[in-house]
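Action item from last meeting closed. Structure (187 res):
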């Protein structure tokens, strides 16, 4: 949603005069009627992409494939902690760019939007990036770990903090996989 506003620079001299009259209480009925009839119609709310508001539904089969990919992400996540503990920062950067890791959000969206795969309580617990839950927690903590690989202002990387962040990400993805297993979404 985009809100349309006019700045003072965009208002013409006549518009400013009318605004000044209106604010000072000097605007009479005749002036206000003329201003109303001459005023351009400006939409207040503009929907830039109505198609984006539509949620795509996926088949159960597509959801199951995505759920199995999330299990692959969980397995890969375990090796991320090993890389962090060994201080292999370049390997860890490459690891985060791997499709197994970078496709998590897309796979989670397919699982959440698969008709009949999860209960409403499961969906509520897992959540999405827009609605806070375990999936958002995982995405945010992985993003934090990636950002920490840049180091502080001196370029020093805090390995303990990265390991702690990855442990939190592991906890989140473990809970997600537990929910998916209990829902029999994983084959």
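Sequence:
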């Amino acid at each position: 949603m985009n809100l349309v506003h006019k700045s003072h620079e965009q208002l013409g001299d006549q518009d400013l005069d009318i605004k000044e009259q209106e604010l000072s209480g000097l605007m009479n009925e005749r002036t206000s009627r003329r201003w109303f009839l001459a005023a351009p119609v400006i939409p207040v709310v503009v929907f830039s992409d109505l198609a984006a508001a539509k949620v795509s539904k996926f088949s159960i089969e597509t959801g199951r494939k995505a759920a199995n990919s999330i299990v692959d992400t969980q397995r890969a996540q375990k090796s991320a902690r090993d890389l962090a503990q060994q201080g292999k920062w370049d390997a860890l950067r490459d690891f985060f760019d791997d499709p197994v890791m970078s496709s998590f959000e897309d796979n989670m969206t397919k699982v959440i939007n698969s008709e009949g795969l999860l209960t409403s309580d499961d969906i509520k617990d897992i959540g999405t990036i827009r609605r806070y839950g375990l999936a958002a927690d995982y995405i945010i903590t992985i993003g934090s770990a990636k950002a920490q690989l840049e180091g502080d202002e001196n370029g020093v990387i805090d390995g303990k903090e990265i390991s702690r962040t990855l442990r939190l990400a592991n906890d989140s993805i473990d809970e997600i996989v537990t929910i998916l297993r209990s829902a029999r979404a994983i084959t």
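Note appended to the action item: The CA atoms of residues 50 and 104 lie 25 Å apart.
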